[in-house]
Amino acid sequence: MREEEERREEEERKDRMREESVLNLSYTLKSPAGGSLVDVCCVSWPSVGVCVAVAGEWEVCVWGQTTPPHWRRLHTWTFIESVMSVFPVPDAPGLLCVTLGQLEIREARVLCCSSLSQAVLCEGEVQTVVGMSNRRLVSSSHSAATPPLQVYTLTEDGRLQASLSLVCPTERVQTVAAVEGQTDALIGSTHSGHLVLWNVTTGQLLRSITLGDGFTDTACLRGYSLCGVLFVLLQHPSLCALEEEEGGALFSLVATNPLTGTVALATRLGLPKSCTGRLVEVDVHGSSVVGVFRSGSICVWQLGGHQGQRGVWLPEMGCLLARWGAQGTVLTAHLNGDVCLHRYRPL
Fold first, then answer.
1. pLDDT at 214
2. 290-301 burial, b for 16+ CB within 10 Å, e for fewer?
3. Residues near 330 by beta carbon (within 8 Å), at least 6 away in sequence
4. Which of 311, 298, 323, 322 is nearest to 267 (CA)?
5. What is the 3-state secondary structure (H, E, C) of the chain?
6. CA distances (Å), 209 to each of 213, 254, 258, in order?
7. CA 260 vs CA 208, 256, 295: distances in Å
8. For residue 69, cis peptide bond before it (omega within 30 degrees of 0)
9. Residue 53's CB: how many other CB atoms inside 10 A?
10. pLDDT tens, 294-340?
11. Could you give the CA distance from residue 175 to residue 195 in angstroms, rounded to a whole number?
12. In the predicted model, is pLDDT for residue 239 greater than 70?
C-alpha cells in the first residue's frame, strides 16, 4: 500500500515538472482588445519584428515592442462586420488574413502592416479560409453562389496576384489543410471518411483515399510528407474527453500511400488521466498540437515526442484559446481579456 502511494506521488511530481517546463510565461498584454477577445496570432511587422495581432469583436490591432521590453499598439483596423478569426499569411511578412461574419464567414480580407491597407479577398457564404506556403490562401464554400474551392496567390504587399479553382470531388469537402514538405499539395476530408488530395498549382484532384471505419466526420488538421509517405493528423468528431478503455482518442495520425491509397494508423493522441472536460479549440504548428478545454485548461501534445501520445495537461489556465506563434512562442487569450506570451519547450 505504501509503495503504491509513493509511486503515485512520484508520477504526480513528474507531471508537475513537465507542466512547469512546457510553457514559461514571458509577458502579459493587459486587455489589448478592450476585453472582447476573438482571436490572436503572431505577425512579422517589417520595421519592428515579431508582433502580436489581437482580434476584438469589431477590430484587429497589432502590438509590438518598439522599445523593448515595453509593448504598444502600432495600428488598428476596424470593420462593420464582426471579426471571426485572424491569422498570418504564410511566407508573407506583414500580411494578415481576417475573416468577418456571424456564425459563418461572409467576407475575408487581407491586411498589410507596411501600408496599413486592407483588401477584400473573397465574399459570400464561405465555410473556411486556410493559409498555404508561398503567400497563398484557400477558401472552401458549400454555397452554389461561391466557388467551392478557390486558391488565391498574393503579392508581397497583399494584392491579389492570381486565383485558381480546384476540381471538386463527388463528396462535399468538410475541412482542408496544408501539407508540410509538399508546398503544392492540399488535403481535405469528407463526411464519409475519405481523404482527398489536390495539386494547387494545376487545380487537379489527384486522389480520393478511403480512411476506413472509425474515421467518419474526422477533420484533417495538417499533412506531413516524408519519404513518399503522406501522414495526416485527424481530429475525431466527438469533442468529449473519452476514456482510453473505451477506445476513444481525440486525434489520430494516419500514414497513407498517395499512389496506392493504402492507409495505416500511425498513432493516436489521448488525454492525461487527470484531464477532463470538453475540447473547444485546437491549433497545430509543425508536430506540436495545443488544445483548449471548456474549463480553461490546456493540453499540449508532441507528435513522436516523449509522452506525446498522452500530452501534458496545464490546468487552471483560464484560457479562451491558444495559438502557436513565431520562434517557439505560444499565445494564450484569457477570460479576463489578457493575452499572454509563453516560451514553449517541446516535451
1. 84
2. bbbbebbbbbbb
3. 23, 290, 322, 323, 324, 341, 342, 343, 344
4. 311
5. CHHHHHHHHHHHHHHHHHHHHHEEEEEEECCCCCCCCCEEEEEEECCCEEEEEEECCCEEEEEEEEECCEEEEEEEEECCCCEEEEEECCCCCCEEEEEEEECEEEEEEEEECCCCEEEEEEEEEECEEEEECCCEEEEECCCCCCCCEEEEEECCCCCEEEEEECCCCCCCEEEEEEEECCCCEEEEEECCCEEEEEECCCCCEEEEEECCCCCCCCEEEEEEEECCEEEEEEECCCCECCCHHHCCCCEEEEEECCCCCCEEEEEEECCCCCCCCEEEEEEEECCEEEEEECCCCEEEEECCCCCCCCCEEECCCCEEEEEECCCCEEEEEECCCCEEEEEECCC
6. 13, 12, 8
7. 10, 8, 43
8. yes
9. 28
10. 889 999 998 876 555 678 888 878 899 999 998 889 999 998 999 99
11. 10
12. no
What CA–CA distance (Å, rounded) separates 69 from 17?
28
Query: Which residue's C-alpha cell is 480512411?
Result: 211
Distance CA 313, CA 301 (A): 9
Neighbouring-strand partners of residue 226: 229
| Cβ count near 275 (within 10 Å) | 21
> What is the sign, positive or negative, of the torsion defined by CA atoms of 312, 232, 138, 146?
negative
Q: Which residue is associated with the grid cell 500530452? A: 311
Q: Which of 87, 19, 97 is nearest to 52 (CA)?
A: 87
User: What's the angle, vertex CA 145, arms to CA 219 and CA 55, rounded to 5?
Assistant: 55
Residue 232 corresponds to which cell in the numbers above? 495526416
| 337, three cell numbers | 481579456
Q: Sheet harboring 117-126: ordered strands across? A: 83-88, 95-102, 104-112, 117-126
Q: For residue 240, name the pLDDT band (cuts at 50, 70, 90).
A: very low
User: Model's pTM, two decimal places?
Assistant: 0.89
